[in-house]
Structures are given as C-alpha cells and as structure tokens.
Amino acid sequence: MPKLYVFAIGGTGSRVVKSLTMLLASGVSTGYEFVPIILDPDSSAADVAKTEHLLNEYRSIHKAVAPNNEKVFFKNKIESLGEVIGAVGANALGNEFRLGIEGLNGGKFKDFIDYNLLEDGGSNQALVDVLFSESNLNLDLEVGFQGNPNIGSVVLNKFTESEEFNLFANSFSNNDRIFIISSIFGGTGAAGFPLILKNIRHGLVNGKHYDHLRNAVVGAITVMPYFKLDGDNTDNIQSSTFYSKTKAALHYYHKNISESKDINALYYIADDNNNVYKNVVGGTGQKNDSHFVELAAALAIVDFANDGSLSTHEGNAQNPKYKEFGVNDLSASNPVITFKDLSHETQNQIQLNLTQLLFFSLYLESELKDKLTAPFAKETAPVIDQNFLSSVFYGRLLHFLDQYRIWLGEMKRNKISFSPYNIAELIDNQGAIIGVTPQNADLMQLVSGFAQRSSIFKLFKEKSYDLMTAALNEHRKKKYPTVENKLMVQSHDATAEIITKYLF
Q: pTM for this structure?
C-alpha cells in the first residue's frame, strides 16, 4: 500500500494529527498507510506528547487487530519514519513520531547560530544585527520560536539538511504522497511549510537528486487564526499580531507557492476565533482543548488522499486545487455544529464512522464485562473472557477510547462547539475533561437531531445496549484469527447494522 507522509509542524500540526488519528480509529478509509512526522522545537510540549502517546497506542492496536482488507476500526496503518526505513531507521530514528532538530537543545537563538563566534563588530555580525533584533537573538528556544517565523526558518533549515530528511527522501516511492500541516499565524508552522515544500520541489537532498520526490503529489493545509490568547502586550506571543502575520504569509504563499505551481492541493481553514486560550508559552502547561477546526483540517488530509486527479510534471503541479472548508449558517448567539450542519459529503465521510466508534466505546465501558456468557463471547473461538479483559491489548484499547470520548467532549465545550452527540462532560477539579457520559440511557437518543426510525426501541427503553448484544450474537458464526480481531470486526459489523438500520 502506498504511504502518505504527513509533516505536522508545530502545536497546530500535532493537534490536527490527533484528530486524524481519531478519524482513522473510527474506520475512515483512505487507501494509504500514514507516516506522521512531527516537527516541533518545544521538546516538552504537552499537546505533542498527547499526540505521540495516542499514535503509539493506535499503532499497537492496529498491529494486534491485523485488519487486512476488512471494514474495521483502526483499519489504516500508521508507522513512524524509522519503521518505514527498517533496520537503518531503527538505528537512526527508533520508532518515534517526533523528530528532533540537530543542534536545537534549548539555549538562546544567538547560541544556535554561533553569534559569539562571529568577528566582534565585523561585517557578518553587523548583518546578523540588521536581520535579527536583540530580543530575537536572546530568544530562549527551549519552548519554540514564540511566533517568530524569521527565527523558525533559520532553525528548521537544519532539518532539511539533516540525516532524518535524507532518510525520508530515500524511503519515498513513486506512488507515495506528502501532506504538510501548519498554522500561518505563529512561528513554527509559518516558517516550516514553505521551507519543506521548497526542498521537496527542488528534489535535491544533501547533494543527491530525487526525481520522484521532485514530482511528488503534495498537499497542505494552512490553518489561519481560530482562537485568541489572553494576556497583554508584554507577552512574546500576542493575538493582536495574528492577522498581520496571516496577511503577510498569504501574500508570500501566493507569490512563491501558488504562482509557481509548487502545491497540488492547498486547503485553507479559519474561524472567527472568539475562543480564548490561556497564553502559555509552550511546555507542559500548554494544554488546549481539541477544536472543530482541527477535525476539519484532518478531513482535508482524507480528501487529499482520496483525490486521484492530482499529478505533477517536471516539478510543477498540474491543475492545482485550492479549497476552503465551510459549514451551513450558524447562529451567532449559539454557534453549535451538528452533523446536519455539515455538507452531505462530509456527513458521509464521518457521521457513521464516528458514531460507530462511540457506540463501541460506550458498550465496552458499560456492558462487555457483564456479557461474557453471551453467545458472541463464548460460543465461537477464540472466546472473549476475563483473561482477555485483563490483557495489555484490552487495557490499551480502553485508554484510547477514553481519549476518544474526551476529544469529543473537548470539541463540544469549545467555541465553535462541535456537538453531534447528546453527551455531558465529566470535569476534574482543574477544569479538564476526564470523560463524557450519555445524557440519556437510551443510545438511540445519543445523536443530536436524529430520532430512531422504529417503534421497536420502545421495547428497549433504558436497555438499548441489548441491541448491541443482539447484533453481536448475529455475527458470532464468523471465524476470526485472533480474539482481538474478533472483537473489533464483530463490533464494527454490529454497530454498522444498528446505526444504519435505525438512525442514519
């Protein structure tokens, strides 16, 4: 299967990959193996750490399920660059999704460029002083570029000269594709996107020419402002600069990317950014709720993967496409998105899959442990028993599904609110969402704006999990290679049957 290399740059890149991982877990199909490459100079970034952990769990679950060509949860394969490369990559990169930047180990920017080694008062030092302010030179890189794309472009250029980028170029094949995620209003993404794209289109990596890389099909999403930050004008990163940075970057992209036909498909997304996040400059304290904009950005990757019309010739994109994401009109006083506010195409992409995964998640959390004597669990091999519920795989699956429900809860309480389900958030004493619960015990009341299509559900009032058990029993005659595969395939088939028959 061909690979889609996804360069996720900065905090926004990591959060979009998180949403993409949730889509893939729900069974959204793309026809590609995904290779996320996370680039973020903030080594302690909480959002990056969350995404990495989620990717590692997904990878382990996928391997155990071994889906082959079946319609199933966790269908698409996710690999790290090190795994793609094999033995060479295992030595050079390990199995990490986040790649380091050579020479970036904290410290000030002037240390990174060896400013003090330049001749004191000489022409080189004078040139640096013209290009970078004193505050630029003294910027602490421990938590990233802090909204300075001029610094980011210098530092990230090291990545394109690195052994890691060389290994990526060596692993890239003719049928593979590339997608780049970046924000346009900060420092890391705004600098990284054009830099990586330029090196791909040149096809020259560390002195070696890669013609198939030069002619790659490349897509990107540029995320424009979708939130504001609290704080005042003494902070390094200020919301008041977001729009001016966006305008400047868009002008640069038009002149140097669009007009030169470097990109095959470029997606844009933004929001009125009424949402206000706490202004935390990187590190473990930067923990933002998931946002619908990030989910929509992840859908751009799915759209790109499924677009077979894109091509490149002699380094130029043929008939490049430019797309924006939109929803139906929303009330200014109550900006809430449900499935019915999305286009039919988007509904068809995610409505069934996300609902299946939520049904599955709630069933495992509330019911499975009490249904081990049901026919689907015990009458066909391999059996689902208490030993399986105590396994490492099952514990990992439950944790991932916990994170899935939290992701839904965070998007529900964010602005704009993505609220396709009638769920209530469970909050800890720090204000963080630690889980969600259905607002109604009847699962057929779970999806906002959809009522069940049959009076049969009156028989199951307060007991709608019984429908899931009955559907699982109907699929018990199939043969499965492992108990992990059995649970996931059976559950995917059962949830699809219930939801398509009675809801969508």
A: 0.88
